[in-house]
Amino acid sequence: MTSKLDPRFNDPRFSTVVEITVPFHDADAMGVVWHGNYFRYLEVAREQLLKQFDYGYRQMQASGYVWPIVDTRVKYIAPVLFEQRIAVHAQLEEIENRLRISYQIYDIETGKRTTTGYTLQVAVDTETKEMCFVSPQVLFDKTGVSL
Q1: Secondary structure element (H or E) that encloses residue 62, with its range
Q2: 51: helix, coil or strand?
Q3: Could you write out the DSSP letters of every residue in 96-143?
Q4: pLDDT tens digits for 26-75?
Q5: N or C: which end of the chain has fewer CB within 10 A?
């Protein structure tokens, strides 16, 4: 999966795929994944993606910033079911003023896309608790992407 928005993010470090087999506890009585559990799947992919360019959550905090999610969207195209094997794709799309990551979830067996979405995170200085309106230099250093 490559970004169509900005060719700077076509580097393999800026996309990842995580395979998940849906556990019983994620599904309702009909065997359909409860809508809120999708955010956990996105989180697993997001953590792996961030670690690929050495800026996972521990590195973020050590650099003096936390990156809360301030906006998210998930579009449910087709249901995901108990024991279904899914591939969660995550792609870095923007870093200048916020961290935007897009997601697509596919059924591994059929290749059918079941879900799309994105998350937006902003840097917050851990000392001052102030939100940064421009991403801190450490993110540019870690990704090697320039303005």
Answers
A1: helix 57-62
A2: helix
A3: SSSEEEEEEEEETTT--EEEEEEEEE--EETTT-PBPSS--HHHHHHH
A4: 999 999 999 999 999 999 999 999 999 999 999 999 999 999 999 999 99
A5: C
Give the span between the Cα atoms of 123 and 98, in whole angstroms.
7
**69, containing H or E segment:** strand 69-76
Largest CA distance in the chain: 49
**Would you state the pLDDT for residue 4?**
61
Secondary structure in 3-state letters for 13-41: HHEEEEEEECCHHHECCCCEECHHHHHHH
Task: State the pairing for strand pair 99-107/85-94.
Answer: antiparallel
Q: Which pLDDT score is estimated for 146?
A: 82
Tokens standing for 95? 């870093």
